[in-house]
Amino acid sequence: MKTIIVIVVLVATLATVWGHHHHEHDDDDYVVKTREDLLKFRDECSTKLNVPADLLEKYKKWQYPDDELTKCYMKCMFKNFGFFDENHGFDVHKIHKQLVGAHGAIDHSDETHEKIAKCANKKPEDTDPCAWAYRGGVCFINSNLQLVKSSVN
């Protein structure tokens, strides 16, 4: 039991230190995105990547095929939302704030945060940022963490 307590304290301390020294995980300045933001980001990413209309229609229905274009589209969307960068990966706190921030207080120790962290921490063996973003995105969807669908109305 003492070992568990020591581990918990150590993890909490490291999380606190990490939070103070790494601004990318500070969600205080994160502004919850709206449906208008989603539409703007969708337009920007589909234009930048030349996403065909039929594929864009699939994305609108939360269908994301396992192909290179879709993977890079997801990365683009997550980057525009402020959830992902190619060096650090996903920002769990910002994703959590997007999910529940518009609806009240955020408890970063709740089940939702755990689900986000589980998906976000899966860095692929390869270094392809598109694949990394896609794997996290598919995990979010499979964990019923539909980031925009439920939080952007």
From TrEMBL:
Where does the secretion signal sit in this chain?
A: 1-19
Question: In the UniProt record, does the keyword Secreted occur?
Answer: yes
List, in alphabetical order, the GO biological process terms annotated in this UniProt record. sensory perception of smell
- Which Pfam family, an example, fits this chain? PBP_GOBP
MF terms per GO, please? Answer: odorant binding
Q: Which UniProt keywords apply?
A: Disulfide bond, Secreted, Signal
Where in or outside the cell?
Answer: Secreted
Which domain of life does this protein belong to? Eukaryota
Any one annotated GO CC term = extracellular space
Give the InterPro entries listed for this entry: PBP/GOBP (IPR006170), PBP_GOBP_sf (IPR036728)
| Protein family per UniProt | Belongs to the PBP/GOBP family.
UniProt cross-references to PANTHER family, sorted A to Z: GENERAL ODORANT-BINDING PROTEIN 99A-RELATED, ODORANT BINDING PROTEIN-RELATED
Protein name, as recorded: Uncharacterized protein
